[in-house]
Automatic annotation (TrEMBL):
Belongs to the short-chain dehydrogenases/reductases (SDR) family. Pfam families: adh_short_C2. InterPro entries: NAD(P)-bd_dom_sf, SDR_DHRS6-like, SDR_fam. Keywords: NAD, Oxidoreductase. PANTHER family: DEHYDROGENASE_REDUCTASE SDR FAMILY MEMBER 6, DIHYDROANTICAPSIN 7-DEHYDROGENASE. GO terms for molecular function: oxidoreductase activity. It comes from the Bacteria. SUPFAM superfamilies: NAD(P)-binding Rossmann-fold domains (SSF51735). This is Oxidoreductase. The keyword NAD applies.
Length: 247
């Protein structure tokens, strides 16, 4: 990963932030993006190899602009995503459209904007990886009250395989990551906003056969592998790091 330029979305906190630090520790030049500028400021202060840029992944023009501004990448990690809680009887058309926009349309736009530069870069480096954040809650497994989320994360796997198939001969590798339940600020938010937070945390842990939530450090080895040359013969796959949920 040394001296490779890797852009990460939603890098202010959670797995995106941990990935930015892990990639920088391996020698990459990381462009960490998010809408939370305070979180970005603390991140760039933490590591000299991390530069930051405001990017709202729902803003199609901003995606085109940042692709033009930063130029060809050696790696792209589309990490941004949100969780809708509920069945299809509990989702409005507006909330459905919001999740589709944040979780999948933004990812397509990111790939579309950066692919031409990455294809050029692959001509000299051999292969360039894209990593898309999916989930075990997707086409892999259904979970209660994750109808919208599971639908969008299944679409992430479909998009990933399509990009992998379309651009494999041009040196683009595209894989998806499917984590189990990871202890991140947004998961804490979901736990704390439940009617009974203590029980909510127990319920999240209960669905993990290993008896604990994942930490971001459980995920970063797979993330850095898929964003590095170590995975140079790997493409079009969805990688579960789920603590045994889907055994
Ligand atoms: P998180 O949800 O705690 O943080 C998300 C980050 O996204 C925040 O820094 C926020 O500012 C940023 N963000 C929100 N809207 C944005 C936008 N429009 N543009 C750019 N950035 C935006 O982090 P997390 O829990 O690590 O989740 C990251 C990804 O991992 C998501 O795609 C999520 O669906 C997926 N995921 C999470 C879990 C889990 O248990 N935490 C499990 C599987 C998959």
């Amino acid at each position: 990963m040394k001296d490779k330029t890797i852009l990460i979305t939603a890098a202010g906190q959670g797995m995106g932030r941990a990935s930015a630090i892990a990639c920088a520790n391996l020698g990459a030049k990381v462009i960490a993006t998010d809408i939370n500028t305070d979180a970005l400021a603390t991140l760039s202060a933490q590591h000299p190899a991390i530069t930051t840029d405001y990017l709202d992944v729902r803003d199609g023009q901003a995606i085109i602009d940042i692709a033009a501004r930063v130029g060809p990448l050696d790696g792209l990690f589309n990490c941004a995503g949100m969780v809708h809680n509920g069945t299809i009887l509990e989702v409005s058309d507006e909330d459905w459209a919001l999740s589709i926009d944040v979780n999948i349309t933004s990812m397509m736009r990111m790939c579309r904007a950066f692919l031409p530069g990455m294809i050029e870069r692959a001509k000299t480096t051999g292969s360039v990886p894209i990593l898309n954040m999916a989930s075990m809650a997707s086409s892999i497994k259904g979970f209660p009250s994750r109808a919208v989320y599971g639908t969008t994360k299944a679409a992430v796997i479909g998009l990933t395989k399509s990009i992998a198939a379309d651009f494999v001969a041009q040196g683009i590798r595209c894989n998806a990551l499917c984590p189990g339940t990871v202890d991140t600020p947004s998961l804490r938010g979901r736990i704390n906003s439940a009617p009974d937070p203590v029980q909510a945390e127990k319920n999240f842990i209960a669905r993990q056969p290993m008896g604990r939530l994942a930490t971001v450090d459980d995920l970063t080895p797979m993330i850095t592998y898929l964003l590095s040359d170590a995975s140079s013969y790997v493409t079009g796959q969805a990688f579960l790091v789920d603590g045994g949920v889907t055994i």
